[in-house]
């Protein structure tokens, strides 16, 4: 403005406006950097911090900071040693609980690891205004504790509780109901209840589920593990679903999953996709359930047993649940017939933005085409275990939804390997942000799948899309000014102008034990300039495999992704011998060398690693080869080992100059009660953390 000084200091911004700016910054490390600018910014950052995850050793809790007075969400589940009783380290646990309240007086959301009920008896009275609580426990429940004792203190002192998450809390299904019945006012105030039991193979019986929902009539979000197998007492069928909808008519999220679905067992690719038993759920009942839940926005029904001819019920979703945005169906057949290009079944749900179809035996390419035409808002699409769809149908779907679709998952589908999955993504190559494929390299039917070449002529021929090229060429002229990567006409030799995955930032891969990652870049994923995070799931029985013939699974091939900084390497699905293996076979230490060799080449900042397991010993350990290879990752800043290891192996990690955060988490069920196999006990963690945080270690940043 004329007549005003051009020199305006940042400190001239009013404190109220500056506080609002600080509160909008969510990234923890960015906030920490901001707090180092000056004392004023330091105080302002601390006073506007709303969420905090507490790290460090439980023996140092008396050194709690007192500058985070505005924190409303507090996570205490990652204190070290992980999984140990939170307050038992102190000679006066009540005083320690009071120190937590004094340091964080504004907490209304709490996440905590509960090894025994005494922890909640001490913590719950400190924050009477708690609204959201998430309990975590992977250790076995104490059999001597009475039913409901884990929840008694929480319900007694948290009169404003509205959200309870026990999905990662191991308890018996009989534990929750007595506590809910004993505190009817708390039950009536609950709006969010997550009782998915990831740590148990048991599901809630129908009478338990109905009793819980009858006591919690105001639920808006319900996630539960159930039993849909009609051969068991207490299975969930037509009457249970109708009663549930009647008990909680205000539900906006309903997530019902059979207990066997959480085991993630890979289906047999040679079966037809139907189970031997049908669920006791009819399409007529489904229609009535949908009518009873008019506010539904997200629905998950993973039944694991056949639900046949469901298209009439799914046609009602659009009219009876007009707010529905996300839908996941498991073992539902006949969801869309796709006859004569007529829209029916699920294809009439025009408002869907996320759709996941699992183990639908009769889902065809015609049905995919109908879905793409009837659900034009889809931004996320997943197909798992669907045996009849092919690359042609998936290509048609991605082409029709190329303006909205940004997340795709293709897994366990018989007619897809890695190459065909990537070829089906061609229409959205320059838009897709998240992708999951299976690293299956075997060649499928030659008439449907071709290997990748430098051009996509083979793609267009195999999919028989010549009739649609003219429309795409016309559309190209409109897209040239809007996109750097566009379709263009070069005769019949090239259909797409770019092979760059310009927006792909998250990649998820499944690979069988013994297979290699090396062909990934050759299959078409060689140019991903924005890829920051990769998730790799390795599964299989290494006891049926010979010694690895190669020195590495191929992690060094991922060095072609320049921005890759985070990796989740999950080998927990690999079964093997933790001790001496029979002649001709490899124990898990050799397999770990195979999995991790080459990781030192990658410029990783954060790594989550799940070691392979010996099921007979219930052991998931980091062995010497893995520790030595991880110690060579010179750029690593965060390392989380989801298993156990020896103390002297952990000391190898001190060679990483930038390492700041390390933790050993036995977050699998059942977590060992007393770790007598390895040396990582309470004192071991203390010694390692003292060495990690020693003043002798110079951290570059």
UniProtKB/TrEMBL annotation:
InterPro entries the UniProt entry points to: COI1_F-box, Leu-rich_rpt_Cys-con_subtyp, LRR_dom_sf
GO biological process, one term: SCF-dependent proteasomal ubiquitin-dependent protein catabolic process
Protein name: COI1 F-box domain-containing protein
Matches recorded under CDD domains: F-box_AtTIR1-like
PANTHER family: COI1 F-BOX DOMAIN-CONTAINING PROTEIN, PARTNER OF PAIRED, ISOFORM B-RELATED
Domain COI1 F-box, residue spans: 13-50
Taxonomy of the source species: Eukaryota, Viridiplantae, Streptophyta, Embryophyta, Tracheophyta
GO cellular component, as recorded: nucleus; SCF ubiquitin ligase complex
SUPFAM superfamilies (alphabetical): RNI-like
Signal peptide location: none
One Pfam family named in its UniProt record: F-box_5
């Amino acid at each position: 403005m004329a007549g005003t000084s051009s020199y305006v200091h940042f400190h001239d911004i009013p404190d109220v406006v500056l506080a609002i700016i600080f509160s909008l910054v969510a990234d923890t490390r960015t906030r920490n950097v901001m707090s180092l600018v000056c004392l004023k910014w330091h105080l302002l950052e601390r006073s506007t911090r709303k969420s905090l995850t507490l790290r460090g050793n439980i023996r140092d809790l008396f050194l709690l900071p007192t500058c985070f007075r505005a924190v409303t969400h507090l996570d205490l589940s990652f204190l070290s040693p992980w999984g140990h009783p939170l307050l038992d380290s102190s000679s006066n646990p009540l005083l320690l609980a009071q120190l937590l309240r004094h340091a964080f007086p504004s907490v209304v959301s709490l996440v905590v690891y509960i090894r025994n009920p005494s922890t909640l008896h001490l913590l719950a009275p400190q924050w009477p205004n708690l609204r959201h609580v998430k309990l975590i426990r992977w250790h076995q429940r104490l059999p001597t504790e009475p039913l409901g004792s884990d929840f008694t203190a929480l319900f007694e002192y948290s009169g404003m509780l509205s959200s309870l998450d026990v999905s990662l809390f191991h308890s018996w299904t009989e534990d929750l109901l007595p506590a809910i019945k004993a505190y009817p006012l708390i039950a009536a105030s609950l709006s969010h209840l997550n009782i998915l039991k990831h740590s148990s193979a048991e599901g809630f019986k129908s009478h338990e589920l109905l009793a819980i929902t009858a006591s919690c009539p105001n639920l808006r979000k319900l996630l539960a593990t159930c039993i849909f197998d009609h051969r068991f007492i207490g299975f969930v069928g037509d009457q249970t679903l109708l009663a549930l909808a009647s008990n909680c008519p205000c539900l906006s999220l309903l997530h019902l999953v059979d207990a066997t679905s959480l085991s993630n067992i890979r289906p047999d690719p040679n079966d037809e996709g139907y189970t031997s038993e049908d669920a006791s759920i009819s399409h007529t009942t489904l229609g009535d359930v949908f009518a009873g839940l008019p506010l539904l926005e997200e629905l998950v029904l993973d039944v694991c047993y056949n639900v046949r001819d469901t298209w009439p019920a799914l046609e009602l979703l659009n009219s009876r649940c007009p707010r529905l945005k996300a839908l996941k169906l498991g073992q539902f057949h006949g969801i869309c017939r796709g006859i004569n290009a007529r829209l029916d079944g699920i294809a009439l749900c025009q408002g869907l933005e996320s759709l996941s179809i699992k183990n639908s035996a009769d889902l065809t390419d015609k049905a995919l085409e109908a879905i793409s035409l009837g659900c034009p808002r889809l931004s996320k699409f997943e197909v798992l275990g669907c045996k009849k769809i092919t690359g042609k149908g998936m290509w048609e779907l991605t082409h029709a939804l190329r303006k909205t679709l940004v997340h795709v998952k293709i897994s366990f589908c018989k007619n897809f390997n890695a190459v065909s999955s990537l070829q089906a993504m061609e229409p959205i190559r320059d838009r897709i942000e998240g992708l999951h494929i299976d690293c299956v390299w075997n060649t499928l039917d030659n008439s449907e799948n071709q290997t990748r070449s430098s051009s996509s002529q083979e793609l267009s021929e195999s999919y028989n899309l010549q009739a649609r090229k003219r429309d795409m060429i016309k559309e190209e002229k409109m897209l040239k000014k809007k996109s750097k990567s566009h379709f263009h006409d070069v005769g019949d030799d090239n259909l797409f102008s770019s092979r760059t995955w310009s927006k792909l930032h998250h990649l998820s891969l499944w690979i069988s034990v013994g297979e290699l990652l090396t062909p990934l870049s050759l299959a078409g994923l060689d140019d991903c300039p924005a890829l920051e995070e990769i998730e790799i799931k390795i599964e299989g029985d290494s006891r049926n495999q010979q010694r690895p013939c190669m020195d590495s699974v191929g992690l060094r091939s991922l060095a072609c992704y320049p921005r890759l900084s985070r990796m989740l390497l999950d080998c927990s699905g690999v079964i093997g011998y933790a001790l001496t293996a029979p002649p001709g076979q490899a124990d898990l230490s050799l397999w770990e060398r195979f999995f991790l060799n080459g990781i030192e080449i990658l410029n990783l900042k954060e790594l989550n690693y799940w070691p392979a397991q010996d099921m007979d010993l219930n052991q998931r350990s980091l062995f010497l080869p893995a520790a030595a290879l991880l110690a060579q990752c010179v750029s690593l800043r965060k390392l989380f080992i989801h298993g156990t290891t020896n103390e002297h192996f952990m000391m190898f990690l001190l060679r990483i100059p930038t390492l700041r955060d390390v933790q050993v988490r036995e977050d699998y069920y059942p977590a060992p009660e007393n770790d007598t196999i390895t040396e990582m006990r309470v004192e071991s963690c203390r010694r390692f953390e003292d060495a990690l945080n020693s003043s002798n270690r110079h951290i570059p940043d």
